Amino acid sequence: MPIAEPTSALGLWPRVRAVTGWPETDEDAVDKLAAEWGSAGGEFADVRLFDLAAVGATWQDPAGGAFSERVRRHLELTGRIGQGMFSVAELAAGFAAEVIGAKLGIVRVIEGGLAAFGMLALLPPGVGELAQQAFVDGVAEMVLGILQGAAGRISGLLDSAALPDQEPGMADRLSAAASVSGDLLASLGAAVMNRPELVLAAAGGAALTAVSSVGVLAGGAATATGAGAVLGVPLAGLSYAGMATGAAIAGLSIAAIAHEAAMNPVDSSGSTPSRSIERPTSLEGATPEQVRETIPDTWEERPAKKGDGTRFLNPDRPGESIIIENGWPGHADPVHRGPYVKISKDGQVTRIPLEGNPALE
Questions:
Q1: CA 175 to CA 169: how far, in whole Å?
Q2: pTM of the complete model
């Protein structure tokens, strides 16, 4: 079943969605398409392996030689078509992985920011609305960063269906920044929930600042009348002092909330962030079961229909995944014939042959 949209609680996601939209792609359907392309590639690859030696030995006259040459060229073309289908299967599987990562990233950014967004409603009328709109704008920018990061990586897939190792570009950094921003929102949200007195102090400081700003305007107007200068000057002075005091209270309270968030970080799902993956070359020659033992329990497990494998996704870092593939016997690359593990991280892809892989023979 496709990943569902974030909750509409407090109205945060509907306001963000109006700016960013939501990926409508059915990632399960794309995964199925990848499996079908891979299966078709395997059928073509099997035909390519047909041995013409017996035909040439039996039919040795010019007609037989011409026939064998024609069939050989057709078999070579069939092999290229099969490899092309494998490449298209890679594209479809990579696209599905990016859709999954983008959707999970958006859900966690929204859920991580709900608490802080709700607390902004405690601010005085006018101030709260402005603060919430600024919050919506910031979250929308993060979501757009996630989508742009996924789009950039998908564009990279189109540039090379073989998915070679490549340096992470701006799109990857945007996606990573969006993921980190989601964790920051979650940490701030937790701090807000744990220290409500700081939120009230910040709201009170903001209210004092707002009221005092009205006093400054009134004092200025009274001073301008000449006769009202006796009252206007002191009123303006007191109001300026009130603004300074309110700003100081709000600033110190917000700083305390930020300190609380920094000292007690959580990820956007509300728990300690999952550790990232490395590229352990020690996995070479390992069994699929041994690979599974290295994957954190917090990672999401999904079937990878392409190659009948299993995909593991890091819920805290969109685009980071491990796929255990059984492989395709007819693939031109020995590693792809499987079994192998495919590690995707920071826009780079590493394939490590597992026990029984032809590349290890």
A1: 10
A2: 0.49
